[in-house]
Amino acid sequence: MRHVAFAVLLLASPLAGAGPSAPLEPQNVTAARLNAQLAVAYLKENEVAAAQEKADKALAQNPKDPAVQVSAGLVYERLEQVDKADRFFAEALRLEPHNPDMVNNYAVFKCRRGHYAEGEKLFLQAARNPAYATPEVAYSNAGVCARSAKDLPHAEELFRKALKLRENYPDALLQLSDLALERGEGLAARGLIDRYFTVSAPTSDSLYLAVRIERKLGDVEAATRYAAQLQKQFPDSEQARQLRTGASAE
User: Fold this and answer.
1) Which domain range does residue 243 map to?
2) b/e map of 141-155 (b: 16 or more CB within 10 Å)?
3) Is the separation of the CB atoms in 169 and 200 below 8 Å?
4) Is 249 a domain residue?
5) Is 179 inside any structural domain?
6) What is d(CA 141, CA 6) in angstroms, rounded to the nearest whole number?
7) In this structure, are residues 235 and 227 in contact, taking their beta carbons and an 8 Å threshold?
8) How does the average pLDDT of the chain come out, rounded?
9) pTM assigned to the model
10) 3-state DSSP of the chain
11) Alpha carbon distance 40, 8 (integer Å)
12) Which residues fall within 8 angstroms of residue 148, CB to CB, at 6 or more apart?
């Protein structure tokens, strides 16, 4: 659950706002962007070989497009060619150094690879960029980064900064709820997950967290209700599998 925000950022936003920085044949510009988008779409379907083919084709058509570089970074990270992926993300940022989406993408990569201090610094750089329309996303992701580094008080501080900017930002609510449960504060965790459900559709992560909270509080009926909802809406999820096999949801 702690990396949900990262996944959304990586797969939903890398192609937004980027553009070629040098004159090229119009058909190459368009084809490269399309192939970059297809590469990301194939990654979502776990068709990594097809994604690599499209990313490589996009690079050949227009390496000056930051979105093309990001798509290649995503693909080669999935292929565990980390140094190569790092070069692609860094090049995307070099091409558009003031684009907060490019900063965010590189920050996500750094945090996912365990470079937490570098990742958080980049997230905060994006959050403070006046051109960035959703700084709460960057603060929340910085919180995920801090949490991965086991700095829980700092993580909570960053999640609350996200909520100051957007009172009911779902990712921050979910993270804070999970943190509260981790501290043994069941009622606080329940209040936060209830707020989450008023502003966001349930996910397998949020329903599984709700099961854990209600079990902690001893509300068997509520826990059973959330578990049934999880099994019905997300039967193929890892969380549903854990419930079916009797894995601990505490």
Assistant:
1) 169-250
2) bbbbbbbbbebeebb
3) no
4) yes
5) yes
6) 7
7) no
8) 89
9) 0.81
10) CCCHHHHHHHHHCCCCCCCCCCCCCHHHHHHHHHHHHHHHHHHHCCCHHHHHHHHHHHHHHCCCCHHHHHHHHHHHHHCCCHHHHHHHHHHHHHHCCCCHHHHHHHHHHHHHCCCHHHHHHHHHHHHCCCCCCCHHHHHHHHHHHHHHCCCHHHHHHHHHHHHHHCCCCHHHHHHHHHHHHHCCCHHHHHHHHHHHHHHCCCCHHHHHHHHHHHHHHCCHHHHHHHHHHHHHHCCCCHHHHHHHCCCCCC
11) 12
12) 2, 3, 111, 114, 116
The pLDDT score that the predictor gives to residue 244 is 86
Q: Is residue 48 part of a domain?
A: no
Structure tokens at 30: 């368009």
Helix axes 170-182, 204-217, angle to 10 degrees: 30
> Angle between the 4-12 and 170-182 helix axes, to the nearest 10 degrees?
160
Tokens of 127: 């959050």
How many angstroms separate the CA atoms of 37 and 58, rounded? 9
The answer to whether 87 touches 101, Cβ cutoff 8 Å, is no
Would residue 207 count as lying in a domain? yes
pLDDT tens-digit readout, 112-167 = 999 999 999 999 999 999 989 999 999 999 999 999 999 999 999 999 999 999 99
Per-residue pLDDT of 82-97, as tens digits, reads 999 999 999 999 999 9
Provide the domain count of the chain. Answer: 1
* Domain harbouring 178, CATH code: 1.25.40.10
Residue 112 identity: R
